Amino acid sequence: MPKWLENSVFYQVYPQSFCDSNGDGIGDIPGLISKLDYIKNLGCNAIWLNPVYDSPFMDAGYDVRDYFKIAPRYGTNDDAKRLFEEVHKRDMKLLMDLVPGHTSDTNEWFTKSKQPLKNELSNRYIWTDSVWEAPPQYRLMCGITDRDGNYMVNYFSSQPALNYGFYDITHPKWQLPPNHPDCLRTVEALKKIMRFWMDMGCDGFRVDMADSLVKNDDEKIATSAVWAGIREMMDKEYPECALVSEWCNPVRAIGSSGFHADFYLDHHGNGYSTAFRYYNYETGRQESFFSKEGNGDIMTLVNEFTENYKATKDKGYISFFTCNHDNPRMSAWYDELELKINFCTIFTLPGVPFLYYGDEIGMRYQSELTSKEGGFSRTGSRTPMQWTNGINKGFSTAEADRLYLPVDSRKGAPTVESQEKDENSLYNTVKRIIAVRKSNPELCGNGDFEVLYAKKNEYPFIFRRGSFVIAVNPKAEDVAVDFDYEMGEKVFEIGSAGVCDGRITLAGQTYCLFKIKNI
Ligand code: NOJ
Fold first, then answer.
1. Does the CB atom of residue 208 touch ligand 1 within 6 A?
2. How many angstroms is it from 207 CA to the middle of ligand 1?
3. Cis preceding-peptide flag for 460 (omega within 30 of 0)
4. Any idea what DSSP says for residue 7?
5. Can you tell me the distance from the alpha carbon of 131 to that of 343, in angstroms, rounded to the nearest whole number?
6. What is the mean pLDDT of residues 368-376?
7. Is the confidence at residue 290, as pLDDT, over 70?
8. Which of 107, 20, 122, 54 is nearest to 396 (CA)?
9. Ligand 1 within 6 A of 58 CB?
10. Within 10 A of 255 (CB to CB), how many other CB atoms are there?
């Protein structure tokens, strides 16, 4: 287990929207390098960089054309190498994005695989044995190549699924077992990609759709076995590198597959969703626990998280995040005070947290935008970073109509420049809470976690991390409940909290982090 993960706070960089150094309207690697000091100064010591590989960008880069080449719009492989060096100079780490489940249909492997005559890459993707064979339970593209067969897709139609085999074989004529030499060759090809970038200096990967490799594998037994093999390779050859999965099943991802961390994704109705992202679009009612409306229930998070935390805490980390490139920014439903309370909570829960670029200033979810590069409803969370109050908010010097996506041009749109100067800004709140986390080992990684107060449909939520207590009352009204500890030094407070005669009182919209005396 790489030691550095324990006190990491990640900053997610969406490269096309972060910083454009050459005035072409698209963010790039030299632009990111110029902002590393900013990220470090905010307190983040690790970066997750969304895909920067060569791609036709039908899915914003998750459709890889060439795994060994940086997309020219972001720079060159030399720029990537320099990025890793600059990151390390600052004592930071960087994870690239690994897309193991599918490629672009323009990838050379696919060009070869779709040839009508059998060749060494015929089985690199999943093909039926005839174009007339198209069982409806599989997502197949039919009759669009010269090869007599249909191929399976993993996500969009332009993303054919790589072949890691089938666990449960229902159509033996074309489904291969995971230990078929051609499936094993797919795994080796993946390892080659990983080695290439880790040799160049990246510190590991965030792994896209990590659970999608072996098909008909409901319990993920064969998929976990693939990852366990890859983890073995990492432990042997790259023990300082990390793997973070997009999976949302810590027991499988961390426990069985060897991932060092697993994202707590927004799956409708799960703990993370009911806590932070349970806005009811039909009724317009906010049903998240962490809303000032106070209609939520913390118990799904408490039960689900506690169970997963206990089951995996000795092997890896659960990663909470403020947002990512697939979700609406929380600012879509929350005001600044709610964001402060929510983010402070996220940064003091166990695991390894992730901050999505621009969330530190409360950038808007631009819901009115039409789709860009396969973004669809996700596009509004992918707009240019708002650095300054100048042209294009400092993102780029290009004409406004050449920008990757429009910059938020509303009056008063948040910028780093404005918020840095304001002690009470969201930016400075986020910066302070990250500093508190990083300077207190008890708040880092999987340090001791115990729920002290959580009840169905009730407020507040109180938990302990070592000798610290975090008491949160997101709703607008005051609450008071029994509390067995004596309050010591208050380390961080939004709103107001007090302990008296065995009761804790939290004013409406309070987050308080304090030391306890009688632990
Ligand atoms: C998950 C990624 O986060 C998302 O952006 C992408 O579209 C899909 N996987 C497909 O790769």
1. yes
2. 10
3. yes
4. G
5. 51
6. 98
7. yes
8. 20
9. no
10. 18
